[in-house]
Amino acid sequence: MTKPTPRSTVLVIDAYVPGRSAAPGAARVFKLSANETPLGPSPRAVEALRGMADHIALYPEGSSRALREAIGARYALNPDRIIAGAGSDNLLELLALAYIGPGDEAVYSQHGFLEYKIVTLAAGGTPVVAPETNYTAEVDALLACVSERTKIVFLANPNNPTGTFLPANEVARLARSLPSHVLLVLDAAYAEYVLREDYEAGVALVDAHENVVMTRTFSKIYGLAGLRVGWAYGPAHVIDALNRIRSPFNVSSVGSAAAIAALSDRAHLDAAIAHNDRWLPWLSREISALGLDVLPSVANFVAIRFPDAPGLTAVDADRFLMSRGLVLRAIGAYGMGEFLRLTVGAQEANERVVEALAEFMQSAR
Ligand code: PMP
Questions:
Q1: Could you state, in order of their start, the residue ranges of all structural domains in the chain?
Q2: N6-(pyridoxal phosphate)lysine is carried by which residues (predicted)?
């Protein structure tokens, strides 16, 4: 008997493997593997969720209007040029489906977020990978990969898993230099964490160009990863294309309600920013002092490089940390097998990681 067969491109995709959360045998587990916030969601979001019990049997309002209006009010954007999705992954997927087909190419940088490869292949397109220097995307390298066949350039800024970023003038140069048939997707999932004056998430570029779109998420600093809510801001014609192909109820009513409440809690957001601003540099400093390389990060995680020496590799470190209930993210799938990615956690988790790494480095000497 024959079976329905997916397109051949589907079967060559390595499915995204999320970070682990279990640490076998450990009494207490600190999950530092998925860039989630240690502060959790705003209490207002939790309250809003409780209030939604009576609405669960009903379909959500299909255009996520209330959410788009709340985002628009918060960030001074036109709600008609916003589309909401089930996480920003949903928007990346829709962008690929709308713009990429067999014979088309999508460009992203060497250690760019893995989802770009998956959505490009899933849409039937061909990924084209631009080289990086110092684990940072390079505008000229990205531009050199662009051809007539290029439909999308994906850029995560800051990038996961490296934590590195491109300053506003470089992203502006990329937007300016791209041919007008190419859509530039600026993935700003970690934008709220970036405290640098030379950073711009993408709004200014979306407003200045007809071929730039920005994606954002409630999964990271807003602490709503489990509810799957993200959004994109773009030119009207791009938002229109995405709306045509999205599923009719792609954001849940509970997700919308929690996201709207989360947006209203500036104090919680400020606390999350302040926490990261304190502990990101602390972790980078303490871990570097142990003799390990830490990539310079502007997000809520750091990539740590381990030596290529027996007993001291990232695989050894991963095993050692796991035995102490510290779950980091191995990023071999990004071609960074000598690294582990560590999410900034609560104070106790951060201190335990540094202690455990000190012990690890000592034990291997
Ligand atoms: N973009 C980047 C750069 C990310 O790191 C992530 C989360 N891993 C996402 C997008 C997707 O996040 P979500 O679908 O939860 O919004």
A1: 8-40+267-363, 45-265
A2: 220
